[in-house]
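Bumping with the actual sequence this time:
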Amino acid sequence: MQASQSSPTRKKFILLSVVAVCSATVLKFFTGENKKKDEGDTVKMLTQDGKLVEINTKLITQCGGKITNEELQKWVKTKANS
């Protein structure tokens, strides 16, 4: 009888398992946010020769206004024009 009382019960095992999973989840959120802040957000932008590139938002210094379709068509160099 004493041997069965000293061994962990099923309820204790389940409780410890739930606590371990919750702890791992909480640690994941705390460590994951720090990595995202270091990397920074990126935006996709179109270069003048028509290539799509990703740029870190920390490198963008000024916010420009939205351009018209005509301005965009004049800005993009096509292969026929070069």
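The tokens above came from a reply further down the thread. The mean pLDDT is 77.
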